[in-house]
Amino acid sequence: MEKTQSLHAYIKEEIINRIKTGVYEKGEQIPTELMLCEEFDVSRTTVRAALHQLTLEGYLVRQQGKGTYVAEQKVKQTLSSTVETYSEQIAVQGKRAEITLVNLEVLPANEWIQESLDVNVSDPIQRIERIRKANGETTQYEISYIPWGIAPGITKQQAETSLYTTLKEAFGVHIAKTVEHIEITLADERISKQLHCEPGLPCFYIETIAESTEGKKIEYSRSYFRGDKTNFVIERNYPWREQNEGTD
């Protein structure tokens, strides 16, 4: 253990290593608090602190009266360039994807929507609330805004599939670029209700603006991802080029 590392942080790291190396397998019950106390020669308070953090981060699931188990593997989603839809990304991981429409309505654009989508105040905007699930578990809550003039009359059936595929196939609009801003937030009462989690759970929050091939802003969205159910993969490709002799 590093000198600057607390006891509960050390125990947490050790348990994560055991999960990742298969010592503790998915769905397996880990040793009891008492057994961990004896193994690491620490107090129950220290063990509980480590287990609490691991539960919040989605590595463990604690079942009242039964014990603590290794959680299902988190859903991986790609932030780098990809043409795969949500369903395709989830299917590769052996999971069943599901998109459910929560609400679909047309509202007049206000000032912040005007700024995000380059529309006029009071222009009709479709507000689309959706839930995404993997194997029946809610992982994401998303609110999308699409101008009526871009794709008039998006239906429930279309909203419960890939919106980008719908825009391309039904309205002839191709998404060529997205700009995404990611932050960490805590689920408030509204978000926790939609994500079926406890208030205060750490979540990824992503704001996205999608542009067409003509550079027109097509969609603005706000998405909340359960931090205990989701992680992100970022892949970068660096073009190889021969360096000039004598340079760093």
By CATH reckoning, the class of the largest domain would read Alpha Beta
What strand order characterises the main sheet? 4-5-6-9-8-7
Radius of gyration over alpha carbons? Answer: 22 Å
Distance between the termini: 37 Å
Shape: elongated
Give a short account of the largest sheet: 6 strands, antiparallel
**CATH architecture heading of the largest domain:** 3-Layer(aba) Sandwich
Which regions are unreliable across 5 or more consecutive residues at pLDDT < 50? none
Kindly report the CATH topology of the largest domain: Chorismate lyase
How many β-strands, per DSSP? 10
Query: What fraction, in percent, of the residue positions are helical?
Result: 25-40%
Order of helices and strands: HHHEEEHEHEEHHEHEEE
Helix run count: 8
In terms of DSSP E residues, the strand content is 25-35%
Q: Kindly give the count of domains.
A: 2
Averaged pLDDT, please? 85
CATH superfamily of the largest domain: Chorismate lyase-like
Q: Give the class from helix and strand content and strand pairing.
A: alpha+beta
What oligomeric state do the depicted chains represent? single chain
Summarize the structure.
The chain is α+β, with helices and mostly antiparallel strands. It contains eight helices and ten strands. It is elongated.
Structure description:
The protein is α+β, with helices and mostly antiparallel strands. The protein has two domains: about 5-70, Winged helix-like DNA-binding domain superfamily/Winged helix DNA-binding domain (Arc Repressor Mutant, subunit A); about 75-235, Chorismate lyase (3-Layer(aba) Sandwich), CATH 3.40.1410. It is built from eight helices and ten strands. The strands form three sheets. A six-stranded antiparallel sheet has the order 4-5-6-9-8-7. The longest helix has 14 residues, at about 5-20. One of its GO terms (molecular function) is DNA-binding transcription factor activity. Keywords: DNA-binding, Transcription, Transcription regulation. InterPro entries: Bact_HTH_transcr_reg, Chorismate_lyase_/UTRA_dom_sf, Tscrpt_reg_HTH_GntR, UTRA, WH-like_DNA-bd_sf, WH_DNA-bd_sf.
